[in-house]
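HOLO CASE FILE
Compound: adenosine-5'-diphosphate
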Amino acid sequence: DLDHPHGANVPEELVPLINRLDEQRKRLDAQVAERRRFTGNVSHELKTPLTVVSGYAEIIERGIARPEDVKQFAGHIYEEAQHMKSMVDELLTLSRLDDAEAEDMRIDMDQSVSLVEVARNVSVRLASAARRRGITVGLNVFEGDGSGDVKVVGNARIIEEMLRNLMENAIRYNVDGGKVDVCVGRNAQGLAFVRVADTGMGIPEDMREKVFERFFCVDESRSKETGGSGLGLAIVKHAAQLHGASVSISENKPRGSVFEVLFQR
Ligand code: ADP
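Model generated. Tokens follow.
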């Protein structure tokens, strides 16, 4: 590499090593930049609700709120506190997944996990949220084994977390009265998959990679009113990676998106 500052005096056999070190340094730089952006995002995302909470609390505490408003203010405080709590929970989940990837923590990845059972559990837990908006959630099994099940090896809790995030989004970004179709199965190569299809607003093609980044929202205002924090799909991606699975997004016909998690082993 003659562009290298030491290029001129470096013995030829050291060049590959130097190039490797160079690449390593670039990767580390990128990680540091990513970490810095992440910390900035976290602070920003927590600061907004905290400002609301302390504002209303101060008005009540100083006794300058009209009595008839106090209940409503307490409601705002509660809502923002809930939002912060779910964000901190998601951050903890992400850091747990980071640790697992770096193998800093032992996570039992050898469980036999029934995708049908996990999908059914998540459906039950999200049923009332779906019902409130008139959304129907269906579950189908495609090419299951003898007992009609599809099993993969991994961690049940993490797979459940992944599916819950996908199904929550399928409800959150759906239209009232829409549909969510979950399909668990094996493809022609025998690989297990989970597909979550919705009838919502869909995701523009040029955003289909970005949505997996931490704190990314397609539309800031849309996420705000639906209570999202931009961490759900980052969790999905890391959870999938940990299982050697890939996640892809495609268009649902006539409208909406399809998220597919494909287990590669
Ligand atoms: P959030 O907590 O904001 O939902 P996610 O990481 O789960 O964060 O999703 C990132 C963004 O991707 C969301 O803000 C939303 O704009 C978009 N998105 C995710 N799932 C869907 C979906 N099923 N349909 C349409 N848009 C979606």
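CASE NOTES: The chain has a mean pLDDT of 90. The beta strands are 111-114, 136-142, 151-154, 179-186, 192-198, 245-251, 257-263.
CLOSED: yes
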